Amino acid sequence: MNVSPPGKGEIHVEGLISMLSENMQKALNGQLVAELYSAYLYLAMAAYFDAAGLPGFANWMRVQAQEELTHGMRFYNFVNERDGRVVLGPIEGPPTGWDSPAAAFEHVLAHERKVTGLIQELVKLAAEEMDRATSDFLQWFVKEQVEEEESAEGVLRKVKGAGAELAALEGELAARVFKPPAAPS
């Protein structure tokens, strides 16, 4: 097997044909970077909450960061399984501070809604390209984003309801444990 670099950021493997179109591969790589950015964002929020003396809130964000890393790895693995080429782009630095815990969770909800839009765009591209395998792969993420938004909305409601009495939520948020998602069926 002959391996040669035909251009910047690409590797050509003689005799190997990707089952992904160039557009789909680029879009999936972009989503991989978006998932890694999400992990980076939630880790920045964990640091913010640690500095604010809210370790339970920080725990919730660390668990969220772990989830996002597993999402990124799903994209990484899928591109490879389809004989595509994973190309990692730069990850922008996230914000490092928020005006309040409520503002941080408002940012979480807005961010998850943005990710939902990105997933919907991938679903649309897969349909346009009649790429059934990618469409099927993305359905797990469609369902996951419903859960992500619901979770963010729920915690935001509790944070707003607690007002200055955030200590009441500390135990609940500290109890969150990372559970690797089940493999898609």
Pick out its properties.
185 residues; mainly alpha; Ferritin; two-stranded antiparallel ribbon; elongated; disordered N terminus
Describe this structure in words.
The protein has 185 residues and is mostly helical. It has one domain (18-174): Ferritin. The chain has helices at residues 22-51, 55-81, 101-128, 132-162, 167-174, and strands at 3-4, 12-13. A two-stranded antiparallel ribbon has the order 1-2. Strand 1 and strand 2 (12-13) form a beta hairpin. Helix 1 runs antiparallel to helix 3 (101-128), helix 2 (55-81) runs parallel beside helix 5 (167-174) and helix 3 (101-128) runs antiparallel to helix 4 (132-162). The radius of gyration is 19 Å and the shape is elongated. The two termini are 34 Å apart. Residues 1-12 have low confidence and may be disordered.
Compact overview of the structure:
Helix content is 67%, strand content 2%. By secondary structure, it is mainly alpha-helical.
The Cα radius of gyration reads: 19 Å
Helix count, DSSP H or I runs of 4 or more residues:
5
Secondary-structure class = mainly alpha
| CATH class division | Mainly Alpha
Under the CATH scheme, the architecture is Up-down Bundle
Layout of strands and helices, then pairs:
Layout (H helix, E strand, L loop, with lengths): L2 E2 L7 E2 L8 H30 L3 H27 L19 H28 L3 H31 L4 H8 L11
Antiparallel strand pairs: 1-2
Helix pairs in contact: 1-2, 1-3, 2-5, 3-4
